[in-house]
Model the fold of this input.
Amino acid sequence: MDRMSLRAPSAGLTLMELMIVLALVALLLGLGVPSMQKLLHGNRLRAEAHRLLAAINMTRSEAVLRNGPVSMCPSAMARTGRAECSGVYAQGWIVFSNADRDRVIDPGIDEVLQVFEALPPGYSLTNRSGTRELSDLISYLPDGSSRKNRSLVICSPPQVPVDSLSIVINIVGRPRLAKDWGQCARG
Done:
């Protein structure tokens, strides 16, 4: 018997088989990554909407609990450490007792109750028509009413087509979450 016939047949893959496997993996990744991105951004959007809703509910319950006006305003206090109402809600927000119901946090009179971080980069918080970012003061009176209807629309980054989520506050002050209630500016 010659030495060549005693060897076992090769158990590897040919170059053509490897190329086919790589092409299939690339195709599956190309199809799967965009839907995974949409899922991740959708989850992040829901988390941010629930965080904002919790802040609004806290503002309302603190007004009733303290029997005095409590407000929520845009503020970068989480980043800067300065207790002031400025900018837009996407940069962060604070909840504070607001005896004179203005946009100024008066030392010794008003108290900052909670500070919230900014929205993730690319996310925005706009009015219902999506034409401007929000900077209005959200105030509650001791009876838990806000006396103003409003809608806050949270949008994902423009390159990710995820349905918007809105927080709708009725005139009595009750906030609720609504899916696709407003428009997002898509660029």
